[in-house]
Design goal:
The chain has a 22-stranded antiparallel beta barrel. A 5-stranded mixed β-sheet has the order 1-4-5-2-3. Strands 13-12-11-18-17 form a 5-stranded antiparallel β-sheet, with no helix packed on it. It contains 14 helices and 45 strands. A hairpin with a 6-residue loop joins strand 34 and strand 35. The chain is mostly beta strands.
Length: 949
């Protein structure tokens, strides 16, 4: 480890003999204009030119407004290289993190992008999301009125910024130098439903001889949208939406993906099976697969002698004559939220004081609060998966309940607690952040800075829930107080009890008895001390050799506090989970050099040593090398190679036990008893290792200017970049690759892969639960292309025009050999087109966001397996029949128009999704389209007023 660090440093200093040759030759033109150097994301070295070695996209606040999207998260998610599924406020229902807004660069995971504010870290969202374990940053916590620009580094940057910069860096630059007073107000609403948004921003800046200060304040309110409000989300039965006869179809392929429909038809005919019959038989079943309505309906059903019984409508005193076989399907979309109600408040202040010509101090302080309110369908109740009077009991419908017409205890049944109404989740997220430091310069162009940083995020979640043990009490019968309220007394005579009716309505008193607010909270705290130094160490004939180095020491703490109801698994329709704590200390040292080998060739060398306090993490050096070659003024070539490792998020390591139930029928190969459902235990795994990534990046940029073709291409810029990432030790669960039946058979056969996954009682050998933890199981390869074209055309009479086209093509994303590029969550092609116009006080733009459609495999089967099982003969082993459906292409068009010639103000009118196009149907999603990949909101108009005093 130390040797590798020494090698890394040595390789950086091998150029010293070369650079000394040019030191005596170097000179400066005393009459040349002095330019101010700056730091661009991707490097810690201050520079004068904006053409960096690294692929950096820079968006000013004005550029963000040109997209038409009114939030940072929406603007970032529209970038074509944000190619995976993000978390969005539309994911309102029972999401782990309702109301938050994330980005997913390169589709490698919401937790693989490092977010910085003014070049330094900040605390991520405290409540783990996505799979309940990922830690990610919530862009709702940014004070939007304070944003000056956003820089996005598109290649790996672990050597510069740390291990979690795997897919890139998003650096949000907040305003620093501003004098004056600016205020703005914005209002907007949707075309199809009233859900207003309002936002007010204030920015004020002032300065004296030695002190300057800027303060920005933002407040916004977004109303909720409910699924029932929109045509394409109000029905959980997606069969008609998907139009199976047109969209769903069969594909028959071999192991190489070649169409073998005719060969399969011939092979099946030898077994006297018609291929069309084969397809129709399975397609008939598939018609129900896209019906996402819940079997937990109202009235509920009870299983008696292996058969389900329900009532066609609520029954006050049910008998067997009132019941019918079957279940009532429940359209939960009539109660579910589509978009959370969100309120955001933030304040940001930066104060700078100059102590001398060479030293100044600064304090950055910000605070944001995000409040969201989400609603999801009323509580589902599964008798077979719920607790009884105590944590160790199983729920049942007793024979003594007068609404049980079967005359015996029932242990299997489902019900929708519609009397309760929608489940409500209220979340409050608070994010304070303070950075205090000193910065200055000395010698000939050397710059230094040091700072202390504290940032935290606290998420308080309060949900209205129904309680298991109280439901069991209600099934056994409750007492009634004089005011009508209910109470539990096990000694109360049966004729004095009020019982829960599984087949009819239960009054408000029953709802009040069974429900309670369930508060939980999570805290993420980040403390950091850092020091950085950059400057020029000598001159080469080609230019100045820059160097930067520094150290960062930080501590991260995550605490997740659950209620007693969660810990004991007493939340109806919720899984068991207990709180946990985790922390880590990280010490980082880095060195970076920028070497102009020739006038046309620049090399960046960087290495970062990181030492984690986590047990088993190997301290190591992560290198990066990048080249920029500019043989002419109009041509630029660049490339990079870097290594990174992603330390598992604290929740992956330290989350306490989280239990759920999987319902299936299976004969235990050990005890030969039938299992109807089994408990699945997931928890943190302290044995996890870091995920490893090698990143390759190469590209070419063409900017002819006025040097070629008589200058008629002046204003044109074209770039093409290739990216490739190779990943190892990715986190996954065995259930991502195997069915739970494989856990049983594998463990029984002594397969070491499953040996400790099936946990049995030491006395009876009965299966207690399946342990399904995250482990370092997967490898992946990810590669594709970025294309960018822009053209600026200035005219004398008609103003200035700017056209931009950005595309990202995902060629391959293979996870353990399975290429998911072009699948449901990973479109092969994403792109933007923007056309801007400016003339005098007027400006206009139209922004088009494009997402290619996908062919999605909903279900597939190895044909040989079925034919051998049912007919004793098979077809070729690699023949697969797959039911696929098509998600269509999507175009979202956002026009806007601004005028600045009235009362010294700027007025902007815009529409997002101006054609009000519905999202391309995804039958696996009740939100219309693929949430977090496609844009799923209806048309939205907004009007903004801004004035600077």
């Amino acid at each position: 480890m130390l040797a590798k660090w020494v090698v890394c440093l040595t390789s950086m200093t091998l150029v010293s003999p070369l650079v000394s040759i040019g030191q005596e030759q170097a000179s400066e033109d005393a009459d040349a204009e002095e330019l101010e150097s700056f730091v661009m994301t991707g490097s810690r070295i201050r520079r004068l030119d904006v053409e960096t070695v690294n692929p950096v996209i820079s968006m000013t606040a004005a550029d963000i407004q040109q997209t038409g999207f009114t939030t940072i998260g929406e603007a970032l998610r529209s970038l074509p290289f944000n190619s995976g599924q993000s978390l969005v406020p539309n994911d309102a229902g029972t999401s782990f993190t309702p109301g938050i807004s994330t980005a997913n660069l390169r589709g490698l995971g919401n937790n693989n992008t490092l977010v910085l504010i003014n070049g330094r870290r900040t605390a991520p969202y405290a409540a783990p999301g996505f799979d309940g374990l990922q830690t990610m940053f919530d862009f709702n916590s940014i004070p939007e009125s304070a944003i000056d620009s956003i820089e996005i580094l598109k290649d790996g940057a672990s050597a510069i910024y740390g291990s979690d910069a795997v897919s890139g860096v998003i650096n949000i630059n907040l305003k620093k130098d501003y004098q004056g007073f600016t205020t703005s107000m914005e209002v907007g609403n949707y075309f199809d439903v009233d859900a207003y948004t309002r936002q007010v921003d204030l920015v004020v800046g002032t300065s004296s001889a030695k002190t300057s200060m800027i303060t920005a304040i933002s407040a916004s309110w977004e109303d909720a949208i409910y699924a029932k409000d929109l045509d394409y989300t109000r029905d959980a039965d997606r069969t008609m939406t998907q139009a199976l006869d047109a969209k769903a179809r069969w594909k028959h392929v071999d192991g190489d993906g070649k169409n073998v429909a005719s060969q399969l038809d011939a092979a099946l005919k030898t077994l006297e099976i018609d291929l069309a019959y084969w397809e129709n038989d399975f397609l008939e079943a598939a018609n129900t697969w896209f019906d996402l309505r819940s079997s937990r309906g109202f009235p509920g059903y009870l299983n008696y002698n292996g058969r389900n019984y329900t009532a066609n409508g609520p029954v006050g005193d049910p008998t067997m004559d009132d019941l019918v076989p079957g279940t009532n399907l429940f359209n939960y979309q009539l109660e579910s939220g589509f978009k959370s109600e969100v309120k955001k408040y933030s304040i940001y202040n930066r104060t700078v004081h100059t102590f001398s010509d060479f030293v100044e101090g600064f304090i950055e302080a910000s605070y944001s609060r995000v409040e969201s309110k989400s609603e999801s369908a009323s509580t589902p109740i599964d008798i077979e998966d719920s607790k009884g009077l105590t944590e160790g009991d199983a729920m049942y419908m007793p024979a003594s309940n007068p609404y049980n017409p079967f005359g015996e205890d029932i242990y299997y049944g489902r019900y929708r607690f519609v009397e309760m109404g929608p489940r409500v989740t209220e979340v409050q997220s608070d994010s304070p952040r303070i950075v205090a430091g000193l910065e200055g310069e000395f010698g000939d162009g050397w710059n230094w800075d040091t700072a202390f940083l504290y940032a935290s995020n606290r998420v308080a979640d309060n949900s209205l829930v129904a309680i298991d043990y109280k439901m069991q009490q209600a099934l056994l019968g409750l007492g009634v107080n004089s005011d009508g309220t209910l109470f539990w007394d096990p000694n109360l005579p049966a004729d004095q009890r009020r019982y829960f009716n599984w087949f009819g309505y239960d009054g408000r008193e029953m709802v009040d008895f069974l429900t309670a607010w369930n508060p939980t909270h999570a805290d993420y705290r980040l403390t950091q001390v850092d020091a950085h130094l950059s400057g020029s160490i000598f001159e080469l004939p080609a230019g100045t050799v820059g160097v930067a180095g520094g150290l960062e020491a930080r501590k991260e703490n995550l605490e997740n506090v659950k209620s007693e109801l969660n810990a004991t698994g007493m939340v109806l329709g919720g899984s068991t989970g207990t709180g946990f704590k985790g922390d880590r200390d990280i010490l980082s040292l880095y060195v970076e050099m920028d070497i102009p080998i020739f006038k046309s060739l620049e090399v960046q060398l960087a290495g970062r040593y990181e030492d984690y306090s986590d047990d088993g993490f190997e301290s190591d050096v992560r290198p990066k090398i990048a080249l920029k070659y500019k043989p002419t003024s109009w041509l630029l070539l660049r490339g990079s190679y870097s290594e990174s490792f992603k330390a598992p998020d604290l929740a992956y390591l330290y989350t306490a036990s989280s239990n759920s139930f999987s319902s299936f029928q299976f004969v235990d190969p050990v005890t030969m008893t039938e299992i109807d459902q089994i408990q699945i235990v997931t928890s943190g795994n302290p044995e996890l290792e870091p995920e490893l990534t090698d990143s390759y990046y190469g590209g070419i940029a063409f900017e002819p200017g006025d040097k070629l073709f008589n200058g008629w291409l002046d204003g044109l810029t074209i770039s093409v970049d290739y990216f490739e990432l190779e990943q190892k030790n990715l986190l996954a669960q065995l259930s991502d690759f195997y069915g739970y039946s494989d856990f049983f058979t594998g463990a029984a056969a002594g397969d070491p892969l499953f040996a400790d996954k099936v946990v049995r009682s030491p006395s009876t050998n009965e299966v207690l639960y399946i342990k399904d933890l995250y482990e370092n199981l997967s490898d992946s390869e990810y590669n594709g292309w970025d294309f960018e074209v822009s053209y600026t055309w200035k005219t004398e009479n008609f103003g200035e025009y700017i056209a931009e086209l950005d595309l990202t093509y995902l060629e391959e994303y293979s996870i353990d050999g399975d290429n998911v590029a072009g699948s449901r969550l990973f479109p092969r092609l994403r792109g933007n087109f923007m056309l801007q116009w400016r003339k005098g006080d007027w400006s206009a733009s139209v922004f088009v966001n494009y997402i290619r459609g996908r062919e999605v495999t909903y279900w597939d089967t190895n044909v040989s397996y079925y034919t051998e099982a049912y007919f004793g003969e098979g077809v070729p082993d690699d023949y697969v029949s797959a039911l696929v459906y098509d998600v269509d292409d999507q175009y979202v068009v956002n026009p806007r128009l601004s005028y600045s010639g009235l009362w010294g103000s700027t007025f902007t009118l815009g529409v997002n999704n101006v054609f009000n196009s519905e999202p391309p149907a995804d039958p696996q999603e009740t939100s219309g389209g693929t949430v977090g990949v496609n844009y799923v909101e209806p048309a939205f108009w907004y009007l903004k007023w801004e004035k600077t005093f």
